[in-house]
Design brief:
It contains twelve helices and 13 strands. The protein is α/β, with parallel strands linked by helices. The strands form three sheets. Strands 3-2-1-6-7-8-13-11-12 form a nine-stranded mixed β-sheet, with helices on both faces. A two-stranded antiparallel sheet has the order 4-5. Strands 9-10 form a two-stranded antiparallel ribbon. A hairpin with a 5-residue loop joins strand 4 and strand 5. Helix 1 packs antiparallel against helix 10. The two termini are 19 Å apart. 49% of the residues are buried. The model has no long low-confidence stretch (mean pLDDT 96).
Length: 320
């Protein structure tokens, strides 16, 4: 059974990724580390614990970075961000955030562990008798910091499977994807380490956008996992439609693709490239530099995904 550490900023799509990882029973989840991204780290950790409670998992949770590795530089990069707020306010004054501060799941009685996420990653990698896969579905600040603090962990990392990056599109700037943009310095540390990397890029996740009409049929399901999945898609589709990001008909669900790929990659096209990342302060900040003769040549990008099979895989997993 593959040993993994999930590193996430649990909001709506991270929640589905966590559920798949646990319910699939395909992984030995050594721990879940949390980072700021969709919300502050205190809230992403709380959401993570709520999701783990929901699926009956007692996996431990560790809080990590509450921002990028180099905040002052990142603040300058944000001058080039084209994305506006990721919430809207309705006519009753209620805020609809793409990633609610607290997911609508029962409050948890659990607390994150005292150990910092970065130290957890380092200690777990150094002490494991088997190689570990790390799965960042948010900004990779924790992982970048861990490698920088102790590069020896690389020898015990099988691969790093992200959700992030893109080849032909962006969602926070014209060319950059949000997770990679929000801490490109961490991504560069990971890339430059030479570790094998695989990423669920926007190219594939957008191609596999969920049919909202189909997922709405799950809202009346007696299966609590299918019902919650339907609620997540409905929520995301509503927010993104009001923000003008999506048509309300098809809704991308990004983070779960990293988990799905590790279970069944038969309907996902993944291509090997040589990759680096732009860490400058310019309009291309956070964008992948693909096949330009620099970077890690063991970097695999998910570029295409079968839309119907992606949906069926997730719903089948929640139905079992």
């Amino acid at each position: 059974m593959r040993k993994i550490i999930i590193d996430c900023d649990t909001g709506t799509d991270d929640a589905i990724a966590l559920m798949l990882a646990v319910l699939s029973k395909k992984f030995d989840i050594l721990g879940v580390t949390c980072v700021a991204g969709n919300q502050l780290v205190e809230d992403t950790a709380d959401n993570t614990l709520r999701v783990l409670d929901f699926v009956g998992s007692d996996v431990k949770v560790y809080k990590g970075a509450n921002g990028p590795m180099y905040p002052e530089i990142q603040e300058k990069r944000r001058e080039f961000v084209s994305e506006g707020p990721i919430f809207y306010t309705d006519d009753k004054g209620e805020i609809h955030h793409l990633h609610p501060r607290h997911l609508w799941l029962p409050e948890t009685k659990r607390k994150p562990e005292d150990k910092d996420a970065v130290d957890f990653i380092i200690d777990t990698c150094l002490n494991s008798k088997e190689k570990i896969t790390i799965v960042p579905t948010g900004p990779a600040s924790n992982v970048g910091k861990a490698i920088k603090k102790n590069p020896d962990i690389i020898r015990n990392i099988e691969e790093i499977v992200f959700m992030g990056g893109s080849v032909n599109t962006g969602n926070i700037t014209e060319t950059a994807e949000a997770n990679f943009f929000n801490d490109p310095d961490a991504i560069k540390i990971i890339i430059d380490s030479g570790v094998k990397c695989v990423t669920a890029a926007l190219d594939a996740t957008i191609m596999a956008a969920i049919d909202v009409e189909k997922s709405n049929k799950l809202l009346d399901s007696d299966n609590k996992y299918l019902k919650f999945f339907g609620e997540i898609i409905k929520w995301r589709a509503d927010v993104e439609y009001h923000l003008g990001w999506a048509d309300g008909i098809n809704e991308p669900l990004h983070d779960p693709m990293a988990i799905v790929y590790m279970i069944d990659d038969s309907f996902i096209k993944c291509v090997r490239h040589q990759v680096s990342i732009d860490t400058g302060v310019n309009p291309e900040s956070g964008s992948l530099i693909v096949d330009k003769g620099i970077g890690n040549d063991d970097f695999w990008i998910m570029e295409e995904c079968d839309k119907e099979k992606y949906y069926d895989f997730i719903t089948d997993m929640f139905s079992e």
